[in-house]
């Protein structure tokens, strides 16, 4: 019987050699190749082979660390990485269907620059661009920029008043930032370039618009220097663990990556986000809620568990994550996906514990299993990432009707 | 007399958002679609050019308070296009202008270091500084700095970026699966930089780039700009393309190098140059004349005049005489943020000079502007153009040229097919790439990390 539920969305989160800290020591890992274009091109080709909706590429403006406020001094972990947006741009011409979402820190960067960079990623990928926005609370990142004094934060107690205020501010700033990204994407109407030889005009300037954004943290005049991108509005995503980011996702994002640890948890999170959407007066398409899972996948449960144990031993500690950790076979993961999505999840973003092993298990094990169950696409349809996510291409907010 | 022939360096400038670019030509394609950039880059690489160059502008141009609509408008993001072009080219250098004013060193350094890794050592940065409040309205920190402060900040910015490029020495990553040591050094990329404009410290995220640092370009022409280039740049993007001016500039800049412990060949002089080709010199001149008329329409001529007069002159006939009224010497309001405006420091004198020229030649407004803004460096048959380029380089007027075609994206093809083979026959331009990195194409050494003492870097 054909599946009548909305299409399942699958994403892979790419980070270095994989999400487990000892991933780089696995036999098929290529830790000396992490800084090459070929490494990332191979991973994205594998993800595209599995017809995944999109990949995200991790990034931050500080060295990877297991402590909150600076580098951890560990020599047994992958440290150092490339700018995720440029990795996405570098592999865009080498792929043809998959969505590309680099992570971008919004706390220290210029919305004008990021807006045109993502618009350009949309051009070079033919309508497959997006961005996962991230706020920065790490003191070392603030010191790398040196422009502002970092707010007082207590990582051990994010609920005490100073921390709460700092978190609220950062996410409000991020919401302003996304608002500017979106206004700049709309600042050129689709048909602004007219090339009218008769009048000598390259553009119709009435179809270009100042955005005149003024907020607590910055103001931006516009218009963008880059014309409206192919998708009109590239996809904006955010990872959300608590009330403030839920509110950001509800106000500003197309996709919310969330970290439920059970079906009940997933149901609670979706309720929270829907409530936040209502509070924000969000109209149009609701945010797509996508659950993150770290995955250790092998042909048998024992093999997967043994591999995880071996990696944990190499790392010197049991692996812990903000997301739920799945250890088992692709078929068992397909079962879990079937159970969890029933509560209203649009899909799953899988964080491969080891690259390329667990990514190949997704594309060559999980995806065929889901296809057998009629639960996942057997071909790419639609030209753009928006289309695949079931999101219509919006008209520019500035276009006169 | 018999010094060996100099090897010419050639680069391709993607046509920009000014009236050099003729968008009304039937052959003209998109300035935004990636296919245009691929076409242009592949032509340049087929011709064995040293690099491709992208300019940058961070606010749409305006005149009389309205977005300027007569030229190409709009461009993509420089870093994103260069990284994508690295996927469709193999040897071609990838150079871009990135403004130091509306960026932070940490971010720009990680973008260039990343681009250098992703292109396997082909990145170049044209460092510009253009501090105007008009462009600043698009950024968190707008503001204004006087000229001398601008150079200081640009210098400080570059020094900070160098500190970051050098913060990883290049031997930190072991990635030894057996022993479990990924790093040799527990705190790689440690840096601290403090000066009048920046106070930053911490750890850089990008390990040392294949070229060590991207190739550094500088474009300023002032005394400060020349010293800055002599101290810190690998190449100058100059505007002196003629024999006499070129030789003077070349000699002036190169003589400054020993003062910074550098050899003359450590800094290349590369003027921008336009070209028009024809089967014969005569035919090329005819085409060139037509191109000039396309570049300077009657409307465009009036807009140029307004930038000097600082007045709305839309009521004037471009085919008639120059205005009798004098320029408005008040605050410049016609074209905020435009470099062309700053070039005319004494508008009254410029107006007088232009009137005299127009009267002497019986020129209309349009004819005068065509003459005054003339910037066609090379016009002729392929043999004539090849000889002219070679003569200028061998005479030390430059080390090569950054060619600016007027048609996107195909404007480089004729040059690649007809002029390049003649230069190769003369033995003054490569027939194959010898190296893989841009520094190798340009004959520049690979910089060693500066040794800096770090206090409290942990």
From TrEMBL, chain A:
Q: Which InterPro entries match?
A: Diverse_substr_monoxygenases, Luciferase-like_dom, Luciferase-like_sf, NTA_MOA
Listed Pfam families: Bac_luciferase
Highest taxon in the source lineage = Bacteria
Give the binding site residues for FMN.
59
Record keywords: Flavoprotein included? Answer: yes
Tell me the first and last residues of the signal peptide. none
Q: Which GO terms describe its molecular function?
A: monooxygenase activity; oxidoreductase activity, acting on paired donors, with incorporation or reduction of molecular oxygen
Q: Which family does it belong to?
A: Belongs to the NtaA/SnaA/DszA monooxygenase family.
Read off the PANTHER family from this record. ALKANESULFONATE MONOOXYGENASE-RELATED, C2H2 FINGER DOMAIN TRANSCRIPTION FACTOR (EUROFUNG)-RELATED
Q: What is the protein name stated in its UniProt record? A: FMNH2-utilizing oxygenase
Organism (species): Rugosimonospora africana
UniProtKB/TrEMBL annotation, chain B:
Statement: the UniProt record of this protein carries the keyword Flavoprotein: yes
Q: Where does FMN bind?
A: 97, 151, 222
**Which keywords are on file for this protein?**
Flavoprotein, FMN, Monooxygenase, Oxidoreductase
A GO MF label: oxidoreductase activity, acting on paired donors, with incorporation or reduction of molecular oxygen
Where does the record place the Luciferase-like domain? 23-395
- Pfam family for this entry, one: Bac_luciferase
Keyword Oxidoreductase appears in the UniProt entry:
yes
List the InterPro entries hit by this protein, alphabetically: Diverse_substr_monoxygenases, Luciferase-like_dom, Luciferase-like_sf, NTA_MOA
Its family remark reads:
Belongs to the NtaA/SnaA/DszA monooxygenase family.
Q: Which NCBIfam families match?
A: FMN_nitrolo (TIGR03860)
Q: What is this protein called?
A: Nitrilotriacetate monooxygenase component A
